[in-house]
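Question:
When you can, review this sequence-structure pair and walk me through the tokens.
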Amino acid sequence: MKIVFSDKKSGRTAQLEVAKDGEGALMGKRIGEVIEGTFVGLEGYKLQITGLSDKMGSPSRKEIEGTRKAYALISRGPGIRDTGKGKRIRKLVRGNTINADTIQINTVIAEYGPRGVDELFPKKEAKEQEAAAEAK
């Protein structure tokens, strides 16, 4: 399971893997709830869940309760691209609760911890250098 966290102030986003023993503590959490950042090594940080994706790529909708999948008639929001005015589309989406099929959890930083934000988000140049070193 992956947690994607973003900082609204700087507009930066990063992704970290959740340890297998930490996944159990996340089960049953819903979109909108605040979780501890210790699950992914962000001690002192609190993350608010903004969205989920399952192993089939289906997005979650806040208004669908539980972990079930449903064909919802939607006009905007997660799971839908721009439709014309007044158009609605029936799409397969998942409920608002984390379960074993959840692969990605999207979050925003709700409360900052002791580490600086610059330490959390790796620099683009550093990633490129690592990729070049691995390619050699």
